[in-house]
Amino acid sequence: MKKHLVWSVYVRIFHWSLAVCFLMPYFFKSYHKAFGTAFLVLAISRIIWGFGSVRYTKFSDFTFSGLFDYIKNALKSLKTKAKFDEKTKIYGGHNAASSYAILVMLIGGVFTSSFGLMIYFIKKGFIEVEDKKIVTNLLGDIHGVFAIFVFMVVVAHVLGVLIEKYRGGDSLNSMLIDGKKVNAKFDAKVSNFWKIFAVISYATAIYTFIIMS
């Protein structure tokens, strides 16, 4: 069966760069600010991309209906070891669970990084506050809560990908490496405008990483 390109190379770079920038601060504390700022740039860029015209990755192509039915059928299939059938369809793009997960991870990630950046600006004196210690401690707590919440969604998203594979979906290579899926009907085409936008976004993220290191 013919496969169609769903996740363009630009989206895959966004995906893996966001994953790296979110996870690395847990392992490399000295680069926490650098990774966090690069993540903020990439997340905002990906949100802007979502309002564009690239098939499958624009928000208007996301599936927001049938979330609970999808989760119920997914758990049922795990219990019965059943593969996909008409009631448990495979989506060409994002299914309901991944659609919500992507939005939550992006928006939650923006809040996480923004609060972290505010702490940095306050400590550097770019933002004046009456009591630096109280404000930075409060922002630090909020930053941590958002980080934990987003991390939990990331874990749930990864589990969802594995469940999708178990239930008879495309291979992990197809979904994450070459970006092609059997169940898609059309290839995703990226216009020159969005290609340039993506390249500028990557370059900006790299630049912010360097200056914040």
TrEMBL record:
Coiled-coil segments, which residues? none
One Pfam family it belongs to: Ni_hydr_CYTB
As for subcellular location, the record says: Cell membrane
Q: Name one GO cellular component term.
A: plasma membrane
Entry's Gene Ontology molecular function annotations: electron transfer activity; heme binding
Single biological process term from Gene Ontology: respiratory electron transport chain
Where does the record place the Cytochrome b561 bacterial/Ni-hydrogenase domain? 6-176
Question: How does this protein sit in the membrane?
Answer: Multi-pass membrane protein
Which InterPro entries does the record associate with it?
A: Cyt_b561_bac/Ni-Hgenase (IPR011577), Di-haem_cyt_TM (IPR016174), Hydrogenase_cytochrome (IPR051542)
Q: Which UniProt keywords apply?
A: Cell membrane, Membrane, Transmembrane, Transmembrane helix
Transmembrane feature ranges = 9-28, 34-52, 100-122, 142-163, 193-212
Q: What is this protein called?
A: Cytochrome b/b6 domain-containing protein
